[in-house]
Amino acid sequence: QADLKTKKIGKRIEYMEQCASTQIVAHQLAQEGAPDGTVVIAELQTEGRGRLMRKWDSAKGQGIWMSIILRPDVPPHKAPQFTLVAAVAIVRAIQSVTGLEASIKWPNDILFGTKKATGILTELQSDADGIQALIIGIGVNVNQEREDFDAAVQDIATSLRLESGQPINRRELVQEILHFLEVYTELYIEKGFAPLKILWEGHSATIGKAIRARMSRETLEGIAEGITEDGVLQLRTADGKLHGIYSADIELK
Ligand code: BT5
Predict the structure, then answer these.
(1) Which candidate among 62, 82, 108, 218 keeps its CA 20 to 30 Å from the CA of 191?
(2) Residue nearest to atom 25 of ligand 1 (CA)
(3) Is the peptide bond preceding residue 75 cis, with omega within 30 degrees of 0?
(4) The domain 13-202: what is its CATH number?
């Protein structure tokens, strides 16, 4: 904590050996009034989760399992943009600590090739006055070897150690993630999403690609043409129609 370069994010850090999910702890702290920038980190999560309550494999001591409480003064429909802002921050942090170039699969995956090294889960506490808190969950596979992953994800997951061939200092990576998250959220608050959109597109594994988007009610195939100023994915189907995708699982074809 002493080495943090940030002014706000990480000034309060709740560090735990173990918890069910850092998201649950962060939601609780946010409700109790924890300040903007509070960070919850655990060595082990027994019930780490992804979107739609999917399981997030959180091997003990080998990843970064953390949730960050932000209290931005923006309307609730802008919350998904923070997933994209966090993704850019994580890619830049990985680059700075390891030299590795990861790419971002819209909306919340950070990949090496087709394998997932990081997932982001942005959740919202809001009321009639707007956003009370954003809880940004970040799971980074750092030092796992292949056999450390659950069988269910061994073929689709990777870690920074597997990609770089050497162990990575988790503390340094946490510091860099929080640093870049602060830099980019400040840029976002000052200048809006436009500059972040350009950075995001520069790291995107999705734009210009043929994709399949699975949504709760339908599946669409086409070319991912870009994201809007709101972070909505634009998918052009073979009939020439442009569809705005707000939430989906994307398969690169
Ligand atoms: C995500 O969901 O990718 C969001 C993951 C967020 C995890 C962090 S850890 C700290 C905080 N506390 C929590 O409890 N959660 C957050 P989604 O896009 O739904 O992807 C979930 C899918 O990723 C699963 O269904 C698996 O297929 C795959 N998966 C699970 N664990 C993985 C891992 N460690 N590495 C790569 N892929 C994994």
Answers:
(1) 108
(2) 54
(3) no
(4) 3.30.930.10
